[in-house]
Write a structure and sequence with these properties.
The longest helix has 32 residues. The chain is mostly helical. It has 3 domains: 342 residues, no CATH class; 60 residues; 31 residues. The protein is built from 21 helices and no strands. It starts with a helix and ends with a helix.
Length: 468
Amino acid sequence: MAYIIGIGEGANPLLTIIPIVLMGFSGYAIGLIISKMRKVTPMFSRDLIYGNLVVNFLFLSGFIVFGVLTSEANGYFAVFTYILVGLSIFGIYFLLKLIITILKSGGTDGESANIKIRRIKSLFFVSENQTAIYILFGIALFVTVLVYQAIIIYYHPIYSEYDSMYRYLPISKSILLGNGLNRDFYLGSDINMKYPPFIQAINAWLIQSFEYSSVRMYPFYYVLFAAILIYSLTRNVLNKSSSNSESSYFGLIASSAFLITPALLVVSSRFSLQDDLGFIFMLTASFYFLSDIVRHNKPAKTTLLMLSISLALMALTREIGLVIAAAIFFLIPAIKYTESNLKLRALFTVLSFLLPWTLSLKDLFEVGLIYGTTIRLTALLLSNLAVFYILAQLKNQNKFSSLITPVSNFKYIVPLVIPIIFIVSNIIIFGGPFPIFTFSGKFNEFLPTYREIFDITTTINILYFLSY
């Protein structure tokens, strides 16, 4: 298996960093372009977030066309890499220009570089400026735990990632061979099974353009941007109740706390090649844009567009992402666009639970009203009622007509067409959005046999390890 996926090759430190740098700087360049198009003042963190999400979405959209609907993934990956290089050059240029502008601001033209450096140091180290000291502490803590995340991602043993070795990386290899998203292509089965493609497509691009060593470190990209999004999300939440400095400090602390949560540390040190970290990136992006929509009386249309992009990416990153994306999509009108219309608000609340209701009712018809289905239906009903009660208390809303008129507003949900194309093709092929999420009753027929085989293999593995 190591020979098939090539993961046994030695890691090249330079090649592990290059794709992260290219994605980051090219995203920043696109973020600046978005700010220019919106005619707003560029902001580094916002441009970085917006641009990188757009880059990932454009990559995935191209892959759906050239890697799923056709078999030209290798050529597409090469073109995408060259485009990233060009955009990164512009991104680096604009960032250097921004840094020079910051250093020049606040002083006279004849001020020497040493004086400017001392002035910057005094900002953080003068004891009277307590807020600045707190921010400096937050930055130091954030950088420290971020470096620790990079270390455990890079140095953890790859061979302990069984799912990655036997499921995810073979899919990426199959993409490069022109065989699409075939999980068990080498065994001659599961020919039409198309799992969520985002992480597998990214890994295939990394393998083709930067060799296998780049796959090891790239998950740090997801962790880095998830932390930046946590910082921005915290600032959004505290924007009205705290000063700018205080919200920045709490944002840094929240990001640092996120980076040292036990669950994230376990994933980073044991399962970084799986889709968990990418899913966390898209999930935090979705909640960030959701908070931005809730925060403003009249949300910017660009924010709605970016939310659509993050939902599209999340739906094609992990199976549960489809459920959450659908829930957030219907919660937006329930939260902001159902002024004085409780019936419409109730409708969108029910629709936000559409997929859980569909799966639960499917089980009810197939296996009957047993203990498990009863508990699930009861929990769903109570959750639905609780969400509706909370939404019914909201006052600062707009009319639903302002969301759907003029018709040109529908362009802000165009990104959702990409996951719809992928999911519809899967439903046509094997009767469900993803292999583990189907509407066919055959899964339940084979479930007892699968459990029996799984129990046998688990017992064999336990006996094998106990024999040492």
